[in-house]
Amino acid sequence: MSAPMPPPTTLEHARWERFKSKLGGWSLTTYGILAFAFLYLPIVILVIFSFNDSRSVSKWSGFTWAWYGKMFQDGQIMLSIWNSLFLAIVSTIIATVLGTLAALGLERYRFRGKTAVDSMFYLPVIIPDIAMAIMLLIFFNMSGIGFTPWKVNFFGARLAVPYSVIIGHVAFNTSFVAIVVRARLAQMDRTLEEAASDLYANAWQTFRRVTLPMLMPGIIGGALLAFTLSLDDFVITFFTSGAGFNTLPVRVFGMIKKGVTPKINAVSTLMLVVSLSLVVVSILISMRSGSEDSVTIGM
Amino acid sequence: MTERLRRHPELQAWLILAIPVIFLLIFFMAPLVIVFVYSFLERGKYGGVEWVFTLDNIRRVFDPLYFKTFVRSFYIAIVTTLVTLILGYPLAYFIAKSPPSRRNALVFALMIPFWTNFLIRTYAWLTLLRTHTGLINVTLMNWGIIDKPLPLYGNDFAIILGLVYGWLPVMVLPIYAALERLDESLLEAARDLYASSAKAFRRVTWPLSLPGVVAGSMLVFIPSLGAFVTPAILGGGKSLMIGNIISNQFLGAHDWPFGSALSMVMMIAMLIATLIYFRWTKKSEDVT
Amino acid sequence: MNDAYAVELRDVVKQFGDVIAVNHVSLQIKDGEFFSLLGPSGCGKTTTLRMIAGFEMPTSGAIFIHGEQQGYRPPNKRPVNTVFQNYALFPHMTVAENIAFGMEMRQVPKDEIQRRVDEALAMVRLAGMGNRKPKQLSGGQQQRIALARALVNRPEVLLLDEPLGALDLKLRKAMQIELKALQEEVGITFIYVTHDQEEALTMSDRIAVMNNGVVHQVGDPESIYEHPADRFVADFIGETNFIPVRVVSLSPEIVVALGAGQQVVAGWAEEGLSVGDEAVLSIRPEKMDLLEPKDMPKSPSQQMAYVKGKVTHLVYVGADTRHTVVLGDGSEVVVRLQNSYIGEEPWEIGEETIVTWNAAHARILKE
Fold first, then answer.
1. Is A126 domain-assigned?
2. CB contact under 8 A, A232 and B118
3. Residue C203 and residue C87 in one domain
4. What does pLDDT average to over chain A?
5. Measuring CA to CA, how many Å separate C227 from each of A219, A238, B212?
6. How is chain B split into domains, by residue range?
7. Do the Cβ atoms of A194 and C102 come within 8 Å?
8. What CATH topology corresponds to B64-287?
9. What is the CATH number of the domain that holds C337?
10. What is the CATH number of the domain that holds C93?
11. Rounded Cα–Cα distance for residues C86 and C174 (Å)
12. Distance between CA atoms of C17 and C125, rounded to whole angstroms?
């Protein structure tokens, strides 16, 4: 009540401090907007030009669906789509099983040599894909497995998928699945398994009725990650497919080398839509299972 | 038998791990060893290899012609990492300082580009950067801002831009995670102890976010060093990195031993760089 | 083989690396009793419980349930059930499925399962909640479901690991009464782990007080409280005064000398004490009284101790007042006097007083 009035400079200083922090806040937000624009603009432009009514990907001439039509009529592109899907499905299934087993073994047990095994499972994630691609190329060439294809009829398409590519995809996907499943395992409540045992469940029943259901969101997350990585992979597929086998990314690469047209944009947009849907699906799943790091699947 | 299994958890572990481990041993470790072995073999007359021990391949790697590319690749990788750090840290900060309800949406928005195909994102930049037909040059020339196209393609600039674009989300995420975990009361304590905003950042926020910075840097540096797609598409056939040279040995030149040697040296270089980086950041962590 | 005991531990040891968590513990727990393992954190009580359940195996020693040695039997083969500290309800199953789990594992016929699940829910007064998921229930309700899930299997012994720890005070007190009533109704042996001595004293038929892996005393609540066997028990249970003394004689009477030389008689001495030893006289604050020096009796009884002192501190705690008194030799005691005397002057700080107690309440314990 009888406190002296603060000198004017202090009040101005306070105002200046407030202004500075507001300015800071504004510039940060502006930066954020610009950064996100930087991230999205190229993609948006890509999508826009897939509808371009001319062969140019940089001069807009009008709207058309023609390129999508051309894309769906292109037999090679359609074949590569089927190849990609089949490859992704098969390699995901195998990688999910192997990755889940690896996660269980590494997360739940201690044993001699664990560090070595643990490190081995991290290697495929760390190694650059070109190195892994040539590694596999040499191996398949040398081992006589070669690039023998698995001839299969997939929803009417007659595919010849080299085993080498499948194996290559499983090789890198297993580790990713293992990482995701392990993370989920680590945050599982161990007392639940003790409770199951206390309630007369044997090891297998405990696993089937308690561990596995609780682990499922993690397993599905890992599977989705593997599926996406497989669909998107270029380098490893490129080197391990021998002659004549194309997945969509490999096909796109070939198209780019031959000449740039909006058809490539159309294919790209298609792949974009698929990727986005997969991300949305994985977010929905992880939201339902109530985990907090819903968006960090795969990192 | 189940009794034995229960007494010896180690046995259980090995049983569960058997298949994945064997799979990786055969299809990952064995190829790795083979590449190592191949580095020391001679190139066969009609492609393939001769089982003759030689150090020529290793020597060739350090030949100025190829070593130059190594140096350039390191340069590109380091610049990429720095640029992503400079661009990414404020972005991570922005997301971390956003209201909690918006944060998840922002992270989601950050990850969407990363989840789309790398090849496609690189192709997008191709259409923007190309000298005569790229969107940027075409638009700038149309608007009369420049009369000659800018050299945005087929050089280190294009590659670095492409890599930064591709790996930015990967740098942001760990930094964001570290910043988000940061206890606000630490900063309040710093302010209470007369620190300015800048000082508080330098002495409190930055050191505590360092683990995220290290993680992000590693996650960007390694793939940048081994880049293949980006220089292949944006390098215009002129700017090549180690990844392309290695690829050429297998697709064009059919010199597999040399390609293996290049690959080995690249991986060892990455390992050394990683170790040095960890050592260096550990030291600066201890100082703070 | 002794069928009289529900659970028997014979010389059980549990060692983790260098740490001996349970150190030669032997217990005999009777059928139908509410038996508590009481002690501070890390005393080994939970480890002991887990060994009975089968989650840990003893390093040495034997555990018997109704006469049968358990050996290396895993938990799912033992006739006991556990109520976990964090309840461990299966989040992906409904309440009914949780309760039914144990019976399903034992392949009880479906209609019987249904009937018993309903009974169990009624017993814990949560009838109709069967279709809810655990996360939709409050902490107290989850606790009761955990209880139902265990009891529905009609175990020979129920093991409870600090089940009320997560509940707030009022709920905890209510649940203590409920649990005790439930145990009496169902009639099976409860083995209850807690660090809360008031809880143990309220609910148990008998208590085992543990510290550092060792059982210090086993007895009913009154024995534990009134006749603590050693310093740890005296200190851990309730409030106690410890007066440093020296042993003057042990028979025919126990006589000790206080710091200033005055000799008093005591009612009990711990085994292993000899004449001349330094020891402590342990007496509870409510067993002591304060006299004005002018009221000192002319011919004091040998059964009573009269020690001069000065009041230094007073704390009013509602039902009584804690008087801190410093004795001649500098040692401090706390005397609790009920605030129910009308007309008497309350004690003041600085007043000279005489602390008095009945020798029967004084116990001489090793330091």
1. yes
2. yes
3. yes
4. 85
5. 59, 83, 60
6. 64-287
7. no
8. MetI-like fold (1.10.3720)
9. 2.40.50.140
10. 3.40.50.300
11. 19
12. 45
Q: C-alpha distances in angstroms, B242 versus A148, B245, B266?
A: 30, 5, 8
Assess whether pLDDT exceeds 70 at residue B45. Answer: no
Q: Which residues contact B5 (CB under 8 A, 6 or more apart)?
A: B11, B12, B15
Q: What is the pLDDT of residues B234-265, one digit of tens each?
A: 988 766 899 998 988 888 778 888 889 999 99
Q: Cβ of B9 and A126 within 8 Å?
A: no
> Which H or E element spans position A149?
strand A149-154
Among C85, C91, C106, beta carbon nearest to A200:
C106
Q: Which of C234, C264, C293 is the last residue of a domain?
A: C234
Q: Determine, for residues A299 and B95 on separate chains, whether the beta-carbon distance falls below 8 Å.
A: no
Side chain identity at residue C145, one-letter code: I
**Which residues constitute the domain of residue C303?**
239-366
Considering C177, C209, C234, which residue would you say is the last residue of a domain?
C234
CB B187 within 8 A of CB B201: no
Confidence band of B204 (pLDDT split at 50, 70, 90) = confident
- What's the first-to-final CA gap in chain A, in angstroms? 58
How many Å lie between the alpha carbon of A28 and the closest alpha carbon of chain B?
6
- Closest chain B residue by Cα to residue A133: B247
**Does residue C129 share a domain with residue C67?**
yes
* Chain A residues in contact with chain C using a Cβ-Cβ cutoff of 8 Å: 189, 191-192, 194-202, 205, 209-210, 213-214
CA-nearest residue to C155 within chain A is A199
Containing H/E element for A279?
A: helix A262-288
* Whether residues C324 and C362 fall in one domain: yes
> Smallest Cα–Cα separation from A29: which of B105, B113, B91?
B91
The C-alpha atoms of residue C195 and residue C205 are separated, in whole angstroms, by: 16
Q: Which residues pair with A18 in a beta bridge?
A: none
CA C232 – CA C243 distance, rounded (Å): 15
Q: What is the pLDDT of residues C202-236, one digit of tens each?
A: 999 999 999 999 999 999 999 999 999 999 999 99
- Considering only CA atoms, give the Rg of chain C: 25
What residue of B is the nearest CA neighbor of A50?
Answer: B124
Q: Which chains touch C (3 or more CB pairs under 8 A)?
A: A
pLDDT: is C322 or A7 the higher one? C322
Q: Both tokens of residue C218?
A: 């086993």
Checking if the pLDDT of A151 tops 90, the result is no
| Interface contact C88-A199, CB threshold 8 A | no
